[in-house]
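On clarity, I found the account of how folds are encoded harder to follow than it need be. Since the whole study asks how a given chain folds, the encoding of that fold should be made plain. For illustration, here is how one protein appears when written out as sequence plus structure tokens:

:::
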Amino acid sequence: MSSDEPVVLLDAEAVRRALTRIAHEILERNAGAGRLTLVGVKTRGEPLALRLAAHIERFEGKAVPVAGLDVTHYRDDRPGYKGMPGGPERAPTFAPHVEIEGRTVVLVDDVFFTGRTVRAAIEATISRGRPAGIQLAVLVDRGHRELPIRA
């Protein structure tokens, strides 16, 4: 295999099985879907959050709110970061708008590596309200944490 060929970690069936398992784990950990909100970190976490929501709805018979979240302005490892965001130009974008106050927010992303994207997503979420809790669901955990965050 040459270095130009992509490495396939999970094929379509493995992704489907993993998302089914993750959906079951979310439901078990939260005693159902009643107070859940799924937030997919843009760009690749958003379609995963939608797929998880479809699984949860199929298992529970109840739709779960889903939104995408752009954390670009909350990344502390990007040029232009100035600490806690201030003003409407740095407000987090949940599209579509979802309620997070008092709800359990499950942040969804494809790959978890250093933890910086997740830290930004947590900061963005908290700046919009006070969730009852924040959990993390990822498809691939690469390790090498720079921050004490666990999926």
User: Anything to note?
Assistant: Residues 12-29 form the longest helix (18 residues).
